Amino acid sequence: MHIVWFKRDLRTVDHAALSMAAASGPVTALYVVEPEYWSLPDTSARQWQFVSETLSGLSAELEELGLFLTIRVGDVVDILTTLHDDHHLQSLHSHEETGNLWTFKRDRRVKKWVEENNVIWTEHRQFGVKRRLNDRNGWAQKWDTLMRAPMVTVPNKICSGPILESNSIPTVKSLGMKDDPCPGRQVGGRVAGQTTLEKFLTNRGHAYHRSMSSPNTAFDGCSRLSPYLSVGCLSMREIAQATWRRMSQVRDQPKAEIGTWGVALRAFSARLHWHCHFIQKLEDEPRFEYSNIHPGYDGMRNEDYVSPANFQAWADGRTGFPFVDACMRALNQTGWINFRMRAMLTAFASYHLWLHWRPTGLHLARQFTDYEPGIHWNQMQMQSGTTGINTVRIYNPVKQGYDHDPAGTFIRNWVPELKNVETAFIHEPWKMYPIDQQTAGCILGKDYPKPIIDHVEAARAARKLIYGRRSGRDFCDEASRIQARHGSRKSGLSAKKRRHRKMILDTAQFTLDL
């Protein structure tokens, strides 16, 4: 028996593990639903529902190839043991996974099991992430080479192994997961992913570079491909090559017809590099999920104590800062928000509320349908000021609203308590006189909360604490080590260009700008 173990690669196109297994002999397609994983504090029902929809599509894709998707619920090592006892497992094929610490430990258990049972386990690269990477020199060029290579071909018909007993796809309730209503969530599955990609590259993406920052335009202007990449129903190479083909088509068009497509697609293509750039960091140092990237910040925030009132106000979108609350409520209801707003939500929690990035990161991880651990935890630290190599960015929550939602359209949509507030007060409702509050039907402290902190004083205190740690020879030496191992660079760049790339790194998006 040759098993293809599907994990976060739920497709049949450009699937190296499936292709190699098909060349080895009869294939059994296996997906293991791991209840222990789905009980972790960074997983949620909205994520599982997206995965379950994708599994339904994968099952249909495999049937066209002559395969049956076997779904088992339980511990993967126990399941492999049963299959090996009953059918003699010869080889196991899967894609490499850079997930959270739980999946890292699980894969180490699988590695131990295959060695003990003389089973050959072949893992294939899924992204531009490289295991056991010695240094980052030339990393970007290697990424380009991998993405430009032909996509892996899979036979139209594959010889099937024995038909095994299969569980049905579990429901949220049967997995014992907490109910998680998310009415605006994207639909899972490869068909939905392909449609999303096509519409972005041919229609929605023409102003990507301009629409990515404001939540008023980002929901339609960004590609929205991140959840499809996170579960692997589209491959990174597939998206990259489709983008480059579209760029070539645009270049061949008359200048009058190109419009903003050229700059928009170049901006999007660059963001695909960033996706793998951040995952590579967690691959190289898995501790980034749990400990400060720069140890000089250890003890600065107390992870074991989180102000319950402030945390809950932030998580529910009831901080008294309209733009912050609107962004959090939009995320809670849709499972997605654009990168700049993710950065603002994190910075507000980390600096203004002085909450540790671990508990706030767990909450955001659950809310993101596109949760990608390698990107998420690195960006949680980047926006919390604990990397030691990035510029500290303490976003002004009021100014962000004025900049990205000047008329208050987004606020009124997601914070209906403020829908009748005049635009002059929509970003700072605490400036309303009592008569203004009565006219708007919004009494502060009753219909909508007063600000839970003084954001100016909180930012000043946070800045002092953060910069108080960024001094001394030991701090600088460690920052240099971190930059040397994890920083983005290209060989042969001039000093001026290296400084420019450092600036780009400092402003890099929060998770995918997709």
For the record, the count of structural domains works out to: 3
How many beta strands in the DSSP annotation?
Answer: 5
DSSP helix fraction:
40-55%
With helices defined by DSSP (H or I, 4 residues minimum), what is the helix count? 23
Describe the sheet with the most strands.
Answer: 5 strands, parallel
What's the CATH C level of the largest domain? Mainly Alpha
Summarize model confidence as the mean pLDDT. 93
Bin the strand percentage. Answer: 5-15%
Low-pLDDT residue spans:
491-514
What gap, in angstroms, lies between the N and C termini?
A: 39 Å
Q: What is the CA-atom radius of gyration, in angstroms? A: 24 Å
The CATH architecture of the largest domain can be given as Orthogonal Bundle
Give the neighbour order of strands across the main sheet. 3-2-1-4-5
> What is the 3D form?
globular
**What's the SSE pattern?**
EHEHEHEHEHHHHHHHHHHHHHHHHHHH
- CATH topology of the largest domain, by name, is DNA Cyclobutane Dipyrimidine Photolyase, subunit A, domain 3
